[in-house]
Specification:
Layout lengths: L1 H26 L12 H6 L4 H11 L8 E5 L9 E5 L2 H10 L7 H12 L8 H15 L2 H29 L3 E2 H18 L14 H15 L5 H10 L2 H26 L5 H5 L12 H31 L2 H19 L3 H4 L6 H4 L3 H13 L5 E5 L4 E2 L5 E2 L4 E5 H4 L3 H4 L41 H18 E5 L20 E6 L5 H8 L1
Parallel strand pairs: 2-7
Antiparallel strand pairs: 1-2, 3-9, 4-7, 5-6, 8-9
Helix pairs in contact: 5-9, 7-8, 7-20, 8-13, 9-11, 10-11, 11-13, 13-17, 13-20, 14-17
């Protein structure tokens, strides 16, 4: 009798579950769902091309003339409601990032995963804690002093290290991993700007820096936490096993480095961001304690290092495959330098471009923006839903669920960017006259630098750094991909190239703009 009752109970529960599931499946607009496992089989099969898979799902939910939103079902995995919403509808993105900003914070899942590394720094906090750091940082990022400091760090790194390494590779006809060089360059620059301390990871010897290695490993291990239920990584942390054991070891290295750096800044204050924040006060009017200062500084390193280097890697790859764009960029740089440094080509390459010269490179900025449209450094971003809401396109999002806006997918939608959305076309960023950079009228078509209250404070500095580096490379060299090298996306929260970017450097012959114009005539 008990067995029959048990079987009856199981059958009843199964029936109720299947009924609930069938009703749920009817209102989901994403990939096909299966009982118990939901959409997980498709997610697993496409794990190596997740961003293109998401874009394909979003295109499939509508036609070329409509915007897209889909729901992916992941029951019993990481999200409380068993499914999460993915959108690339610009109006939905505006709703999430601006209109209902307070309803879409980072949320507990993200914050708990990143807390060990980033604490309550600006990129891992919400509410008043975030707001006061934002206001403080905004004041610093608008100063000309910071711009000048960044200019000095960037130009010194290019002149004394990057050019030395690339010149040697060119003479020896050897390939370099440009992505690795760019990661080292931006890491040295952001550490210099943030700590006033140069780790010198970019140098001819290509040294291994313990802080850099530990920071990279800690970042990657922290990101992996988002792939699993909270209880799983918490259990591993408690037991000190697997990725959590490695993470704690890396965090200790990071902690030691930050403690030494903070002590040095206290003894000898400088003009870096850490020294400036040491003078600021928190939401309660108190000076920031040491632990908070260290986490604030790490937040800036995380934001300022990977994004620019990854964007530059994809930029150089796109330029190599588009000679027309490459020539227009080189012509523009030559024209600006002819005006600022004269006709002598040797003077063009004596020093990297100063930021005032980089400011004038309109077409190059358009090419960089176009790169970020197609290959945004952060391809997907996630928000937690505080209260039940309805997005502008009618999609219902329940409280406690996760909503993702796919920045990568937005750039690949005909409904957003037109029939040529997959083409690398910098001209789409120029005014009709061709001499002025112009952002889209709908600002939420392009959110590579975020948007709304959390718009990236370092956006202008990032463009200037990327312009300076791009000019420094393209003025001296023509790049070609190493035969057999495969350029693929690495499936992580930052759009790294999985195998790096291995290229040969060929000396470029440049002629003054006046000479080129005479030849053309």
């Amino acid at each position: 009798m008990e067995t029959l009752l048990l079987l009856f109970g199981v059958a009843a529960a199964t029936s109720v579950y299947l009924l609930w599931f069938s009703l749920l499946a009817q209102r989901l607009t994403g990939p096909k769902v299966w009982p118990v496992v939901g959409s997980l089989p498709y997610l697993f099969m496409n794990r190596r091309r997740i961003h293109d898979w998401i874009a394909g799902n979003l295109r499939a939910t509508g036609g070329a003339a409509t915007y897209q939103t889909s729901t992916i079902c992941l029951p019993f995995i990481a999200w409380r409601q068993g499914f999460y919403t993915v959108t690339c509808h610009p109006k939905n993105i505006e709703h999430i990032l601006r209109t209902r900003f307070d309803n879409y914070p980072k949320g507990p899942t993200w914050q708990s995963a990143f807390h060990d590394l980033l604490g309550e720094g600006i990129f891992n906090s919400d509410g008043d804690t975030w707001l006061i750091q934002r206001k403080t940082a905004a004041l610093e990022f608008t100063t000309r002093t910071l711009r000048q400091a960044m200019n000095r760090w960037v130009n010194r790194t290019i002149r004394t290290r990057l050019w030395v390494i690339l010149d040697k590779a060119s003479r020896n006809h050897s390939a370099v991993d440009l992505q690795d060089l760019l990661l080292r360059l931006t890491f040295d620059n952001i550490c210099g700007l943030t700590f006033g301390k140069d780790p010198e990871t970019l140098s001819p010897e290509m040294p291994e820096n313990p802080f850099s290695i530990a920071f990279d490993s800690a970042t990657e291990a922290t990101m992996q936490r988002l792939l699993y239920p909270d209880f799983l990584w918490r259990l591993k942390k408690l037991l000190g096993i697997g990725a959590e054991k490695r993470l704690q070891s890396c965090l200790q290295v990071v902690e030691n480095y930050m403690s030494e750096t903070l002590e040095a800044r206290k003894q000898t204050p400088s003009d870096d961001l850490l020294s400036r924040f040491m003078k600021k006060r928190d939401v309660d009017g108190n000076l920031y304690p040491n632990d908070v200062l260290k986490r604030i500084a790490l937040n800036f390193v995380l934001a300022g290092r990977d994004t620019s280097s990854v964007a530059l890697s994809w930029f150089f790859w796109l330029v190599m495959n588009n000679p027309r764009v490459e020539q227009k960029i080189v012509d523009e740089i030559s024209s600006v330098l002819t005006e600022t440094r004269g006709e002598d080509r040797e003077k063009w390459i004596e020093e990297p471009l100063v930021f005032d010269e980089a400011d004038r490179l309109v077409y190059l900025k358009a090419a960089l923006a176009e790169t970020l449209r197609l290959y945004p450094s952060v391809p997907e971003d996630f928000k937690y839903v505080v209260s039940d809401d309805v997005l502008p396109d009618g999609t219902y999002v329940p409280a406690g669920s996760t909503v993702t806006y796919s920045i990568y997918s937005v750039g690949r939608m005909q409904s957003v960017w037109g029939d040529d959305c997959l083409e690398f076309k910098p001209e789409r960023w120029l005014a009709a006259t061709g001499d002025r950079f112009e952002t889209p009228k709908d600002g939420y078509k392009f959110v590579a630098f975020n948007a709304g209250p959390r718009t990236c404070l370092g956006k202008d500095l990032a463009y200037l750094q990327m312009k300076s580096v791009a000019s420094a490379v393209l003025l001296r060299y023509r790049l070609s991909l190493m035969p057999g090298h495969r350029v693929e996306q690495k499936m992580s929260l930052t759009l790294f190239m999985k195998n790096g970017l291995k290229v040969y450097m060929h000396p470029r012959e440049l002629e003054p703009a006046a000479y080129r114009a005479a030849i053309s005539a």
